[in-house]
Amino acid sequence: MKKNKKILILNYEYPPLGGGAGVVSQKYAEGLAQLGNKITVITTWFEGEKEVSEKENLKTIRLKSRRKKAFQSNPIEMLSWAFKTKKFLKNYLKEKNFDICIAFFSIPGGIVGKWIFEKYKIPYIVSTHGHDIPGFYPEKMKKFHILTNWYTRKVWKHAKKILVLTSEMKKLADNFGNLEKNIILPNGCYSDFFYPDFEKKNKKFTLIFLGRLVDQKDPFCMLKAIKILKNKNIDFTLYLIGDGALRGEIETYIRENNLQKNVNLTGWISKAELREYYQKSHIQICSSKVEAMSIAILESLYSGLYILSTPVSGNTDMIQEGKNGEFFENGDYETLAKKLDYWSENYKNLEIDENFILEIKEKYDWKKIISDLEKIIYEI
What we know:
Blueprint: E1 6-10, H1 20-34, E2 38-44, E3 52-55, E4 58-63, H2 75-95, E5 100-104, H3 105-120, E6 124-127, H4 138-158, E7 161-164, H5 167-176, E8 182-184, E9 205-210, H6 219-231, E10 236-241, H7 247-256, E11 263-267, H8 271-280, E12 283-286, H9 295-302, E13 306-309, H10 315-318, E14 325-327, H11 333-346, H12 354-364, H13 366-379
Parallel strand pairs: 1-2, 1-5, 2-4, 5-6, 6-7, 7-8, 9-10, 9-12, 10-11, 12-13, 13-14
Antiparallel strand pairs: 3-4
Helix pairs in contact: 1-13, 2-3, 3-4, 6-11
């Protein structure tokens, strides 16, 4: 009979803050708690949130630091959270003890995880999500990695395990060392919530683009492609779901290129609303320059969408060319436009094999991922 663990989860981003990694930390916390483990999450406070909240087996503590925006942070804010967390834990760990810690991101979570290990002998696991892996996204992250690699090496040296999301991320992690510690644990999705409903498909050719509106997602590659469709008088609808720093520029581009009748910019929406958009769309476009592992792509695949994507980390693991999607090179909006042109004439025949969808669901179901995570924890 297993003895349930007391687990500390550290992440400066936790819903409603942050992107995919915040969601993952929440799924870890909720899933491990449902298995009977006692979970404490320490994250960042944000306006409208309680500083302390509790439900069965799960306590969430939100510390006030320098965080200003829900979906964007910077190194100063990250370090502020790490400093506040260490200060808080100096007193908290006098009364509480944990069997293990899961630190999200080499920096800043790893800063606190390493400190806890050295001071309190609590072992820790590092959950990486792309940007904190040396060599990831050099176009944007090279300077950051040059400055921080020495400390990341220390964090990884003392960690019991390094969790990576995809095979490509594992290659980068292996290049940095610690091969025996690096374990692939992908993101997941709840298979009973996202599912196909082909009767709900729009009669008009319908596309979806989902994510933060930032340079990393390269939304303008996608917009240039749909501009070509518009100029060919192809009838289509695009749901552009998300928000971010580029929203103003995107709205200007849509207006200047007369795309208002084709593009619906929704902002962030609820999961229930998102499911409806998935079910009535035919194709999801992912034009990202780089990804760790996209939860949105998983949700789309669960919902039976066909994916047109750049060959980024995670998508190359989840998409089988010709079965549930196709690839185009980064920034190649002309090839993307050609693929969209083809499917605009053939989308009514676009239906993913249900057995193939089931295979994806079984591989990436959150229940399986959490079970695998618990096994990793119990082996330490």
